[in-house]
Design a protein that fits this description.
Strand order of the largest sheet: 5-4-3-6-8-7
CATH superfamily: HUPs
Mean pLDDT: 95
CATH class: Alpha Beta
Structural class: alpha/beta
Number of helices: 13
Low-confidence stretches: none
CATH topology: Rossmann fold
Bound molecules: iron/sulfur cluster, zinc ion
Amino acid sequence: MKCVRCKQKAKILLKRHNAAFCNECFLYYYRNQVTKNIRKYKMFDKKDKILAVISGGKDSMALWDVLVKEGYNVVAMYINLGIGEYSNRSQKVVESFASKNNLPLIVKDIKKEFGLDIYKLSKTLKRSPCSICGSIKRYLFNKVAYDGGFSAVATGHNLDDEAATLLGNVLSWEEGYLARQAPVLPQTHPKLIKKVKPLYSLTERENLYYVLLNKIEFLHEECPHSVGARSILFKEVLNKLEEESPGTKQRFLNGFLEKGRRHFQDVSEKLELRECKTCGQVTTTEECSFCRFVKICNHQQET
Ligand code: SF4
Ligand code: ZN
């Protein structure tokens, strides 16, 4: 097996592209894919200040490294969600990468800073820890980006994530989610910062190969709450299809982005946006869920 670019011995085969690469040419391919995605969707340019959300896993660590190496103006943000030892270990990985490479990092600790506890909230509101956690993360990404004058919030979502999310949304015809699933969510309100996914066309396997080749430390374990998540089942189903027919995930996602998504556009435009009466961040209700969470947790502490 020879590298399609330099004809030396190849080290990785990417069946969906019908291409194999040596390590050096893989890195070229990887960085090229990321910069192509950024340009294609006009995510940001070198003048923009980007907030990269980093969890410590392979995907976000790859995102951080590649954006820095490509010369973008990136500040990383890590959120400690209070998920036991998993959160402590991931924070260490992120902090160590920042200090070794002398990179700017914002750390938010939801317990220390806001008194939030996703387990208490989950019990009180009878919602899953993931749904509470998701609301908190989305709020903080946007708030920190807005307050800090950032142009975009970048996340490490990859092709496997996006295809699995799409499958889940299609299976239950979640029109609102389908309308909002894209590599770029543009700014629809002055206080809603653009969200971008520069790795949306790269697979988990490619991100893993990228961090291994660059000797980047990352947290190997997944969040304990991801076990049994439906998204994992969707990923397994898609992996089977991909094995039989390489390129399935890419065709599914790209086909939706090019031909399907526009049919759901008017659904998202109907959402009425307003500002939270407590914090002023954008919400669809009178008070945003983050402020309600803070009140619930602080009230529980007092009683
Ligand atoms: Fe949060 Fe659930 Fe993801 Fe864990 S798996 S980080 S609880 S959304
Ligand atoms: Zn609020």
